[in-house]
Amino acid sequence: MSLLLALLAAAATPAPAQDFRARLPEDEVIYFVLPDRFENGDRSNDRGGLSGDRLTTGYDPTHKGFYHGGDLKGLTARLDYIQALGATAIWVGPIFKNKAVQGGPGRETAGYHGYWITDFTRVDPHLGTAEDFRALVAAAHARGMKVYMDIIANHTADVIQNRECVGKTECVYRSRADYPYQRRGKTMINRGFAGDGVQTAENFAKLTDPTYAYTPFVPAAERTVKVPAWLNDVTLYHNRGDTTYRNESSTMGDFVGLDDLMTENPRVLAGMIDIFGGWIDRYGIDGFRIDTAKHVNPEFWAAFVPAMQARAVARGIPNFHIFGEVSEHDIRPAALAQHTIVDKLPSVLDFAFKEAVVATVAGTRGTDIFEALFDGDVLYAKGYDTARILPTFTGNHDDGRFATSVRWAFPQASDAEILDRVKLSNAMLLTLRGVPTIYSGDEQGFVGDGGDQDAREDMFASRVATYNDNRLIGTSATTATANFGRDNPLFRDLATLAKLRTRTPALTRGRQMLRARQETPGLLAISRFDPVTGAEVLLAFNTSTAPLSRAVEVDVTSAKFETLAGARCAARATAPGSVTVTLPPLGYAVCAAERAR
């Protein structure tokens, strides 16, 4: 039996469920889903148990900024679809109880996305119940699939108001220099408080007056809305106004009004450890994606992460994967890497990888970008060992879909070229180092109108006009009908590549070596090596619209090659240490070497 046939035969049989805990983070293929936009399994919870119009219930399936009805039961019912795609882990968008609606008059939207939490201990009633989540985790685990929770420690829903900002669309950030903790106007307050750098309970016990920058208050109707109850104490928040996303305000300002927790305070740290440790204890989940991680002080993560890892080990979860969102739109990885050293985060979402693929496959930059990207792997806390567990992606629910970037960059391109470019990006995602993360809908050719709400289309039949007028890739279907078929060429390619990856140790755990790159669109060649046998898998990508044929250096023991995916590989090396790579426009090849004896 050929290597390819052996891999496909093995992929046809699901891994035994009892083995899933032993897999390392880099062994996974992650599928990211916002439950509200995936599948509606229970229409009785569409309004979250609330009565009234959309401004009360948050439910309006015709508006892109409100709840649409997807839930945990729907997600559980579609696990077979996700597994058929080749995903081995599911990253579930936040499921905690949210403030249903917030925003000023005419600017109201709903918490369908899960990032406006009021109760950190409960499942949002729009999404289901605690038992629904327990059933999802159990069903995924029975299939040998992991479940990662999306968590938030930076902020809560917008409940606290500042009197000086009521009626205004912006609440300007007030710094510690201009508005120190120990003074309100000319009046001295919080005497003896040594500043937020002294992170002891004794010091923060002296921070009793929160009016140093603004005069925060909670409307009467919401004074006890947050759970656990300690979250209702306004002194546990920064209360300095809206962040500018830069400098001091990056960790102390409110995200468009969302109440920014004073994570320097040991009470907040202990509370968050208790909250999220409880989710591990109760449900046995397999990892956390941490929202807005870079907007929290490093000392918090340095204590929080080990506590979560210890809770996981105690629960029998040895490979608990924690990765932070550090949104940096820069191909240079240094800004990401610092958070694995300073913040001591085990891993971060690889925004630099996404930027590199967009710049080359949805752009015209040379493939030498990848040399700079991968050379930066040494900057991470544990070098390549950390880089290997960075979740990689090409688009997401905030920045928009990769296919959208392609359409914007090449408005005159044919449908065939657009499809080829998206296929090429998927080949990079599923074969290069990191943990490939597929955003739900990408496998169905979704093309949004931009980022944020415009990239959060429904997988079930949508009633949103601005979604349903989108021209999808690889299909004549629209989002007006359910999109859970398995015939889209993108679904088929992703499924093939995902299963190939998870059955090929060189593609999950293997070291990586750059073989060829150029300053213009064209060839990128990279070798990956089996961590046990040392056998080489050559990856070749053509980012240009012209065919190419080039000699590429390989290991001198790599004598024969077998095609695992993409264009046909040369059967033999042309000489010890050299093989000819021939690729069509925007093509790729995955070539497994047989070592000379």
Compile the SSE list and pairings.
Elements: H1 3-11, E1 30-33, H2 54-57, H3 72-77, H4 79-84, E2 89-92, E3 96-98, E4 101-102, E5 109-110, E6 117-123, H5 130-142, E7 146-151, E8 161-162, E9 183-184, E10 187-188, H6 201-204, E11 216-217, H7 249-252, H8 266-283, E12 287-290, H9 298-314, E13 321-324, H10 334-341, H11 351-361, H12 369-375, H13 384-387, E14 391-392, H14 402-409, H15 415-431, E15 435-439, H16 465-468, H17 489-502, H18 505-508, E16 511-516, E17 523-529, E18 536-542, E19 548-553, E20 558-566, E21 578-583, E22 588-595
Parallel strand pairs: 1-2, 1-15, 2-7, 7-12, 12-13, 14-15
Antiparallel strand pairs: 3-6, 4-5, 8-11, 9-10, 16-17, 17-18, 18-22, 19-21, 20-22
Helix pairs in contact: 1-17, 8-9, 14-15, 15-17
> Quick check: average pLDDT?
96
Distance between the termini: 20 Å
Report the portion of residues in β strands.
15-25%
Number of helices: 18
Strands across the major sheet, in which order?
Answer: 13-12-7-2-1-15-14
What is the makeup of the main sheet? Answer: 7 strands, parallel
Shape: globular
Taking Cα atoms only, what radius of gyration do you get, to the nearest Å?
A: 25 Å
What is the SS-derived class? alpha/beta
Beta strands, count: 22
